[in-house]
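queue> pop job 88
queue> type: inverse folding (structure -> sequence)
queue> payload:
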């Protein structure tokens, strides 16, 4: 692991106790290094990678490994930056002014904090996951530049500045649906999670299914990576699909010998989620210049 020293007197290897994966998350040396460097440099960690590579689960793994609260901000196409900061509940205040008995002059009582606001106000350092940031509009990342850089935001309704009590560990995921602004990228540490090799994938599988029969795992892995090598798949199966498929095989009592294209792969719909992909694989996909059918 990298042990680059920062001007804050800590190393990337020992930042915040050091992230070295967790009991149910197998991380590469490069990923662990990226996490610890981001923590040491106090910068958001932007994670990209194809679906099924564990981008979202990384934040939970960091939370579990370092014993910190996880706060998740799920981004949608309609999400605005202010949604993560706070909401001034004018409707409730109006209702209370008409029917309530409380003092509506206290505007602060009607401020509802968003996920970023919650992370800032936490007494202990939290892990903040901003999940799938590329789903929002193009201005969304730019609208968060000040807040993520300075770790504070201003509430004009109460004329108060909310500053982070403890700077959160910020993990941002993207599926690369949109390009992110350069100004935003400059403020992040970037890491691309490569799809696991077969050896690494077997390690991941054994974390989830430690008692899986070795021959079944070996045969299933061979067919899984063979399917991923089929050309022109619209959606290649990822880690989550593999884990679901293996569980389905074990629950069905499928023997390793049954896992061959000639006999017809069972539960193919667990791996492939597109009609065209299933037809492509069953019809004889092209594997590195060779054809092989799945019936």
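queue> result:
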């Amino acid at each position: 692991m990298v042990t680059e020293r920062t001007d804050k007197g800590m190393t990337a290897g020992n930042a915040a106790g050091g992230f070295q994966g967790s009991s149910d998350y197998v991380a590469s040396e490069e990923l662990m290094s990226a996490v610890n460097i981001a923590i040491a440099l106090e910068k958001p960690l932007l994670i990209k990678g194809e679906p099924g590579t564990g981008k979202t689960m990384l934040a939970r793994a960091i939370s579990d490994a370092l014993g910190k609260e996880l706060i998740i901000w799920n981004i949608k196409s309609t999400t605005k930056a202010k949604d993560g900061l706070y909401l001034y509940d004018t409707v409730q205040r109006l209702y209370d002014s008409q029917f309530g008995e409380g003092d509506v002059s206290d505007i602060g009582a009607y401020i509802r904090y968003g996920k970023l606001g919650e992370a800032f106000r936490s007494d202990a350092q939290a892990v903040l996951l901003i999940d799938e940031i590329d789903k929002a509009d193009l201005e969304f990342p730019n609208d968060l530049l000040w807040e993520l850089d300075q770790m504070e935001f201003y509430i004009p309704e109460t004329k108060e500045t909310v500053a982070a009590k403890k700077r959160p560990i910020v993990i941002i995921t993207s599926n690369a649906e949109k390009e992110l602004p350069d100004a935003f990228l400059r403020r992040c540490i970037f890491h691309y999670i490569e799809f696991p090799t077969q050896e690494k994938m077997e390690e991941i599988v054994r974390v989830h299914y430690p008692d899986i029969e070795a021959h079944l795992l070996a045969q299933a892995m061979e067919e899984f990576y063979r399917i991923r090598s089929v050309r022109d798949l619209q959606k290649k199966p990822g880690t989550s699909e593999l884990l679901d498929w293996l569980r389905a095989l074990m629950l069905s009592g499928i023997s390793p010998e049954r896992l061959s294209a000639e006999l017809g792969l069972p539960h193919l719909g667990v791996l492939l989620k597109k009609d065209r992909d299933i037809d492509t694989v069953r019809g004889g996909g092209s594997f590195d210049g060779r054809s092989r059918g799945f019936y």
